[in-house]
Amino acid sequence: MLIKLNWITLRVSNLENSLAFYNGKLGLPIQRRFESRGRQIAMLGIENETKLELIEGSESILKPEAGISIGYEVNSLEEAVEQLKTLDIPIIRGPIQPNPHLRFIYITDPDGFEVQLAEHI
C-alpha cells in the first residue's frame, strides 16, 4: 500500500527563524514557499528525499517534548560537530555509538524539536 514517505510536518512559531536554522545553518535547501489558508509554509529537502514541511502558526499540535526527532545523515560527525561549534549550535546529547557502524548527536531547532545528525561508519 505505502510506497514512500513524502514529508514530515512541524508547526513552528516563527517560519523565518526556522528557515534560518534548517536552511541557513544546516544547509537544507528550500524547495518552495507558499501561503495556504493564511498560513506561511515552506518545504525543504534534498531532491528525491523526504521533505520537511514547516508551517508557521501560533498553535502547536505536537510539543517538542513528545519524543519526536528528525534525523539527517552527515558524511563526518567530527566535521559536523566542528561546524556546529562555529554556528553556536549546542549539542544536547552525544556523541552516541550504539554499534560499531553508527554514531550520532542531537541538537535542537528554534522551537525545541530534536534533530539527530548521524554518521554511518
Strand content: 35-45%
- Helicity range: 10-25%
Question: By helix and strand content, what is the structural category?
Answer: alpha/beta
Number of helices: 2
SSE pattern, N- to C-terminal: EHEEEEHEEE
Q: Quote the distance from N terminus to C terminus.
A: 32 Å
Query: What value does the Rg take, in angstroms?
Result: 15 Å
- Principal-axes shape call: globular
Neighbour order of strands in the largest sheet: 1-4-3-2
Overall pLDDT confidence: 91
Unreliable residue runs: none
Largest sheet: 4 strands, mixed
Task: Draw up the topology in text.
Elements: E1 7-12, H1 15-25, E2 30-36, E3 39-44, E4 51-56, E5 69-73, H2 77-86, E6 93-99, E7 102-108, E8 114-120
Parallel strand pairs: 1-4, 5-8
Antiparallel strand pairs: 2-3, 3-4, 6-7, 7-8
Explain what you see:
- The chain has 121 residues and is of the alpha/beta class.
- It is 17% helix and 42% strand.
- The chain contains two helices and eight strands.
- It has helices at residues 15-25, 77-86; strands at residues 7-12, 30-36, 39-44, 51-56, 69-73, 93-99, 102-108, 114-120.
- The strands form two sheets. It has a four-stranded mixed β-sheet with strand order 1-4-3-2, covered by helices on one side. A four-stranded mixed β-sheet has the order 5-8-7-6, with no helix packed on it.
- The radius of gyration is 15 Å and the shape is globular.
- The chain starts with 6 loop residues before the first strand and ends with a strand.
- 15% of the residues are buried.
